[in-house]
Amino acid sequence: MKECILLSHVFIRNGEKDKLDKVEFALEHWRKFNPKAHIVVTGHGVKPNIEKYCDHIIWPAEIIKKDINVGHPYLVSLGLEYIKKKGYEYVLKSRCDTVHNLKNIFVFAQQQLDNKKMLVTQSTSLTQQVLGDLFLFSKVDLMKTIFNVNNWYPTKTGLTSLAKNFYKQCEQSSWQDACIQNL
Question: How far apart are CA 131 and CA 144, in angstroms?
Fold first, then answer.
């Protein structure tokens, strides 16, 4: 199985050395704990020194304000498009400024998926239609569909847009049932 990790959700302004340090530290650990994975990183603004830790970087110098606080759908979509073209079937998506102290997290996530559509770990609710976007694992095609920028806006939070797009991929008649049977 080919392992692919997409890391996103970071923008860095001039002078934000703390963010640069966090991303560089995190990427060093992503590579250390996932030596076989193809690591793709998306972000915007000042680019950290991460080339030696990843296989592909999408990092425009200009900050994409429309992406901030709504799930970074544009940059995630670009990363997923690249991953699809490379032929990966599954992808693990997380923040590029986090550390998961778990060797081969892709393999671990795939084992947890079982017969569900997607593994999601945070900010998801059974009672409100919101879906956490900071740690996900699924088939690339599903993730591309639910991060569709064309039906993302208007939104105040990416959690609702992601949930709306995911729910459209489910056969269940209620959000709660869709979550229980697919997540």
Answer: 15
Nearest in space to 96 (alpha carbons), one of 58, 139, 140: 58
Label residues 103-130 b or e (16+ Cβ within 10 Å = b): eebbbebbeeeeeebbbbeeebeeeebb
- The reported pTM is 0.96
- Give the dihedral sign, CA 72/76/99/159: positive
Q: Are strands 118-120 and 44-45 parallel, antiparallel or unpaired?
A: unpaired
Amino acid at 109: A
Residue 41: its H or E element: strand 38-42
Structure confidence by residue, pLDDT tens digits, 31-79: 999 999 999 999 999 999 999 999 999 999 999 999 999 999 999 999 9
Q: What is the pLDDT of residue 70?
A: 92
pLDDT tens digit string along 151-181? Answer: 998 888 889 999 999 999 999 999 999 999 9
